[in-house]
Amino acid sequence: MTDLRKIDLNLLIIFEAIYASKNISLAGRNLGISQPTVSNSLGRLRDTIGDQLFTNTGRGVEPTATANEMIEPIREALDLIRGAFRGDVPKDVEDGDRRIRIYLDEFLEPLIAFPLLDMIKEYKNIELQFIRATGEDLLHEDADVGIRCLASAPDKLSHARIGPLDLRIIRNERHTSISDAANLEDFRRESHVAIESEEGFMRQFEFELQELGIQRKVACLVSNTHSIPDIVSKSDLIGVIPYLFARQLHQLYPIQVSKLPFMVRCSEVYLIYDNHLMNNDSQLRFIINMVQDFLMDLWRQEEHS
Question: What pairs with residue 56 in β-bridges?
């Protein structure tokens, strides 16, 4: 049995970050600490637990069976600790009308808009406004908080990493020339519907395709992610969209979802905010904490689906 007196709370936070990112250096960047510090902390935890916890791969690390068994209890424990410091809902949350403006990548809106509205329905004084992210601005000047898909953590803004954006292929369920286990030849041969965008997750995906030397046949360009499943469900075109989105659409459209036949470095989803403003605004702090908890739960569901 592990002696709990030997376990530093920071080691568990670092363990959680490594498990989420599957990368030692990325875990350090997300936590704001150096890669050697993360490696040393992992070494201490390995000695304490008596297990490697993570094994090296070509593009990062993979958790061992012991790490997979540990992650949920550790996350639950850390959530309890975070909740204790976060405290109850501030008394002044219901004082005065307030509009909270959320700046986000377009595909995220249908995933989070209704759940967040449902969560704040008892606070009649708080209104949510969703603003579609455009251009290079990580956080719009008129927005209170951002939810953005980025290749790396923002340098100059306060942020919380939510998780990687896993991408999947979707196709019409009647499409017979491509199977559940699509291969690279299938991906290159089939005609695609894609997003005409240089922003968000698609920008990172197109960059990864170029780096891998993979070309795809694009037959149709659309302006937003939501058009892709509609077109795919009515044609023989295939598309690539975030798995979170595909998982919901699978219940609404006659589509099948399969993994990409190659490894890509995923974009990461970050919650971005002005720390000074949040610390001096209890209503904003309440909403940001609520959004962060909801998003973290959403990503945990994806990991286990």
Answer: 61
Q: What is the Cα gyration radius of the chain?
A: 21
Helix (H, G, I), strand (E, B) or coil at 48: helix
Q: pLDDT for 10-43, tens place per residue?
A: 889 899 889 887 888 878 776 767 888 889 999 9
* Residue carrying the six token digits 């068994």: 69
How many Å apart are CA 244 and CA 255, to the nearest integer?
14
61-63 and 158-164 as β-strands: parallel, antiparallel, unpaired? unpaired
Question: CA angle, corner 181, sides to 175 and 185, nearest 5?
Answer: 80
What's this model's pTM, rounded to 2 decimal places? 0.68
Q: DSSP character for 5?
A: G
Query: Which among 277, 291, 305, 286 is positioned nearest to 112, based on CA atoms?
Result: 291
- Euclidean distance between CA atoms 208 and 205, whole angstroms: 5
Tokens read off for 203:
């920008």
CB within 8 Å of 293: residues ≥ 6 apart? 79
What is the distance between the alpha carbons of residues 163 and 98, in angstroms, rounded to a whole number?
Answer: 29
Q: How far apart are CA 124 and CA 99, in angstroms?
A: 11
Residues 149, 105: contact at Cβ < 8 Å? yes
Mind listing the pLDDT tens digit for each residue in 252-287?
888 999 889 988 877 889 999 888 888 888 888 888
Q: What is d(CA 140, CA 102) in angstroms, rounded to the nearest whole number?
A: 9
Q: Up-side HSE of residue 132: CA atoms within 13 Å toward CB?
A: 8
Sign of CA dihedral 238, 165, 267, 119: positive
Cβ atoms of 203 and 197 closer than 8 Å: yes
Residue 237: both structure tokens together: 């075109």
* Residue 206 to residue 27: CA distance in whole angstroms: 24
Q: Which of 255, 244, 254 is nearest to 299 (CA)?
A: 244
Pairing between β-strand 239-242 and β-strand 167-172 as defined by DSSP bridges: antiparallel
d(CA 259, CA 273): 33
